[in-house]
Design the sequence.
């Protein structure tokens, strides 16, 4: 892992006295390599390493007895800072229902996650209503209904012949009438470059004014995660991120990319397919994981 | 990066490395490709970026072609049962790809049968059933929650007795580090071997082109439990390039056989290495 590799890099330096520019550059190369291997996007790595280098040429490293450890400490601190604080708070509107909308690329885990989050709210004593807004994917509505049934959480659906904007509007009316204090809208997966479908999301947003728009990101996503996150944020101004499939063995660098480019907090982490597998985000654990 | 008339200098090679890394080619492979290109530039005294681009694309296309003969497209034999076992991590596009493949072969007058062996995920069986209806092919299924092995057993028996040309088996998404789910996959493959010993079997790993270096772990660990014969790279209609497959074919001899370029029934294409290499720099 990075700590070991930095130890190696600096091992040959003990007793040499002052660290040279070359020594620091070698260390930065190791940091860059570790982050790229972890799938952190190229530009985010560039900015991050520049930040670390600024501190690495300072006295805390140059005058340290174990410069390798010092650099690891700096990288860890900067990573945790960039990751943000433990943030598992969904918005609460003073005028219920609070409206939550899940968005993201195809197959990232939106439907599974929206049900998990509704379950968390229910366990907190809330009365959530799920809305089946995916009219395109075969059996998508059925999928949400099955999950709702498992959790004993109502699912509002109007079938797949009604526009998602209409479904959202009617779901909101239904929530207001029935005293649901949370409305969670599942949307169809879509490409950030699909003009028509991105417009559809803007239309849903305009119609029901969500208090919380969550971008669902697959933890195994590669370099493109930065483009996806940036575009969704530009088009919709998201409120937070949900990182799924973190129970896999991926390093999860996409989390850093998405967080860095949007500046929005990672609110939840999906840790499995079952409905109880959703955890709050821990920046220190994520930092350690990315560094391998 | 290969703009016309551009000077071939350090900045050029740095930008090339950046482009390759951003295409998920991976750090090591990117460095190797840049190094070999530098060597060619010197050896052949190349002065323009056009020639250099062609050289690099040719090299990448070569790495993507693997062992040429047996690896062109999905291997379907006439006059025998062909079984395509579709595996991969959650959400990669397995079920949708199977719907497209069913259409692809059905329209080429093959007798296709589908097996809904994802008995776990909510509405997975319903999802494949809709695809079967769209294409007009049968789907062997049991109740949700039943043993996937039992569905595969039934499907193999049905395929043999109906003289099916192509049986395509859908499986539940699973992360490669889940030992019990990897065991389940091993068991499914054993059932196929046992119930259809004379069948020609292709085992395809469905890989989302948006996946990063984790694809390597996927190919390795899935490959440890079943003999993978190829990759289907999905969602190439997005902005992700899927460059990680270069290493997968080159190192693991796992060729890409087809690509998914959308959510529609016709959005499945044969994989053309030269086109893929070209698209990396588009
Ligand atoms: N292991 C694991 N699997 C997950 C997790 N979250 C979702 N999944 C699985 O990922 C797959 C895709 O999940 P969906 O909820 O259907 O994804 P989606 O974003 O709604 O997909 P589309 O609606 O088609 O865009 C399913 O097999 C889920 O069970 C997670 O945290 N861990
Ligand atoms: N844009 C695009 N979307 C695709 C492509 N292939 C599949 N999808 C979408 O990706 C999502 C997931 O597809 P599925 O077929 O359910 O994936 P899966 O691997 O069967 O998922 P699990 O069974 O839950 O593991 C769906 O929304 C599909 O429409 C593709 O080539 N391009
Ligand atoms: Mg969904
Ligand atoms: Mg499926």
Sequence:
């Amino acid at each position: 892992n990075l700590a070991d590799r930095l130890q190696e890099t600096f091992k040959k330096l003990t007793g040499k006295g002052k660290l040279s520019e070359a020594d620091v550059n070698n260390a930065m190369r190791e940091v860059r390599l570790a982050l790229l291997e972890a799938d952190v996007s190229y530009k985010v790595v560039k900015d991050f390493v520049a930040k670390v280098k600024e501190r690495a040429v300072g006295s805390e490293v140059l005058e340290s007895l174990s410069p390798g450890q010092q650099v690891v400490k700096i990288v860890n601190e900067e990573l945790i800072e960039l990751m943000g604080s433990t943030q598992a708070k969904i918005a609460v509107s003073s005028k219920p229902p609070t409206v939550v909308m899940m968005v993201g690329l195809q197959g990232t885990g939106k439907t599974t996650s929206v049900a998990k989050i509704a379950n968390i709210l229910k366990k907190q004593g809330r009365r959530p209503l799920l809305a089946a807004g995916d009219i395109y994917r075969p059996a998508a509505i059925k999928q949400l209904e099955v999950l709702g049934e498992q959790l004993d959480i109502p699912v509002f659906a109007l079938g797949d012949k009604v526009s998602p904007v209409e479904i959202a509007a009617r779901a909101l009316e239904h929530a207001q009438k029935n005293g649901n204090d949370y409305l969670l809208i599942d949307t169809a997966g879509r490409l950030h470059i699909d003009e028509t479908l991105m417009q559809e999301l803007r239309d849903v947003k305009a119609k029901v004014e969500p208090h919380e728009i969550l971008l669902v990101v697959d933890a195994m996503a590669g370099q493109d995660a930065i483009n996806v996150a940036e575009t969704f944020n530009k088009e919709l101004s998201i409120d937070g991120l949900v990182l799924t499939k973190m129970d896999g063995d991926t390093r999860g660098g996409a989390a850093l990319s998405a967080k860095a480019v949007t500046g929005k907090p990672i609110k939840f982490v999906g840790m499995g397919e079952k409905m109880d597998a959703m955890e709050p985000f821990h920046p220190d654990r994520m930092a350690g994981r990315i560094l391998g | 990066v290969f703009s016309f008339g551009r000077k071939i200098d350090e900045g050029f090679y740095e930008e090339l490395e950046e482009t390759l890394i951003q295409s998920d080619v991976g750090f090591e492979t990117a460095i190797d490709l840049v190094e070999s290109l530098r060597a060619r530039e010197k050896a052949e005294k190349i002065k323009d970026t056009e020639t250099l681009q062609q050289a690099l694309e040719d090299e990448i296309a070569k790495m993507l072609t693997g062992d040429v003969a047996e690896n062109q497209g999905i291997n379907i034999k006439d006059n025998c049962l062909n079984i395509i076992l579709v595996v991969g991590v959650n959400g990669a596009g397995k079920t949708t790809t199977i719907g497209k493949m069913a259409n692809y072969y059905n329209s080429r007058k093959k007798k296709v049968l589908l097996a809904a062996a994802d008995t776990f995920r909510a509405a997975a069986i319903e999802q494949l059933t809709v695809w079967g209806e769209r294409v007009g092919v049968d789907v062997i299924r049991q109740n949700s929650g039943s043993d996937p092995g039992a569905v595969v057993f039934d499907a193999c028996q049905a395929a043999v007795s109906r003289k099916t040309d192509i049986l395509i088996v859908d499986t539940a998404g699973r992360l490669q580090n889940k030992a019990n789910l990897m065991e389940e996959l091993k068991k499914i493959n054993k059932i196929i071997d046992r119930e259809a010993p004379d069948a020609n079997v292709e085992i395809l790993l469905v890989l989302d082109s948006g996946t990063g270096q984790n694809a390597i772990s996927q190919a390795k660990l899935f490959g440890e439990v079943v003999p993978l014969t190829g990759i289907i790279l999905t969602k190439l209609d997005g902005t992700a390039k899927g460059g990680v497959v270069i290493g997968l074919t080159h190192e693991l001899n796992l060729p890409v056989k087809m690509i998914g370029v959308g959510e529609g029934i016709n959005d499945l294409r044969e994989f053309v290495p030269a086109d893929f290499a070209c698209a990396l720099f588009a």
